[in-house]
Specification:
The chain is built from 12 helices and 10 strands. The chain is globular, with a radius of gyration of 21 Å. The mean pLDDT is 90. Strands 2-10-9-1-8 form a 5-stranded mixed beta sheet. Strands 3, 4, 5, 6 and 7 form a 5-stranded antiparallel beta sheet that branches. A hairpin with a 2-residue loop joins strand 5 and strand 6. By secondary structure, the chain is α+β, with helices and mostly antiparallel strands. It folds into 2 domains: 142 residues, no CATH class; 148 residues, no CATH class.
Length: 316
Amino acid sequence: MHLLIPYAASHAEGCQAALATLKLPNLQSLLGRLSAQTPDQGDELSWSPPHERAQAGALGLTVSDGRIPWAALQAQQRPELASLNGAWAFVTLCNWQASTHQVTMRQIPMRDLDPGESDALLAAMKPFFVQDGITLHADQPGRWLAHGTVFEGLPSASPDRVLGRNLAPWMPTAAQASGLIRLMSEMQMLLYTHPLNDAREARGALPVNAIWLSGTGALPPPSSGAMRSPPPPTLFPTLREAALQEDWAGWASAWQALDALEIKALLDAHGRGQPVQLTLCGERHAKLWRSQPQGLRQKIRLFFGSQPIHSQLAQL
């Protein structure tokens, strides 16, 4: 059993205040029984957040900032696309909010976007992408798979990094990015006059006024002698929404629910002698704890008690 929990902590002032009073007895007990591994250290300006780096590492993917090929991995799961080698990207519909000094990512992915709306926009945008040597394929409402050589080696920022932030530091800057920036501008102009947005605004929904590129790159060629990767961790994204909205009371409640159910199940499994792993991710770092034979240091820690949970989470 391996659980991976994104947004387990944040350096935001509100989160640090919530951590000071957060009670997670099962997590406290579990971490005192597991062995902590060397953390994956980063910062909040990395293009790939810690939970994506941890997930990619567990899947056996090469972890390079902004170059984790999530879209290629998704395409590989589709029988009709699996034979298409090369680089891929996710194209996600979103809403940008412009002010005097900056442009902010207001919503990604778009809420209240039904499959019919997504398909209509896909049909309208496809010809523009084809002119640039990019083929679009439907994936899920509001997000498509894009196949093209331009995405080879192109760093791109995760949607989780840009939501609610000024987009200037996160725009593609690689040598091949100029054509993509132009394409993104063309899509803004197309969306500005698209009748679908009139209907969305009439019902009180935000207009779709931009696209975002992420998950770029190609999968490495398969190796005949490669070892099978262990099963991927189970991702629990239940803290994400509250954290990104900076709803720290809701985030604390979601943590307590996780502690009472999933963390308790992991603790019970460890008590039965099953091997367990837990990866906790903040905005900067990811840290793995796993079950190992108890050494002297761990026995001493169990006797005297482990570091308070708020202190351990604050380090993420």
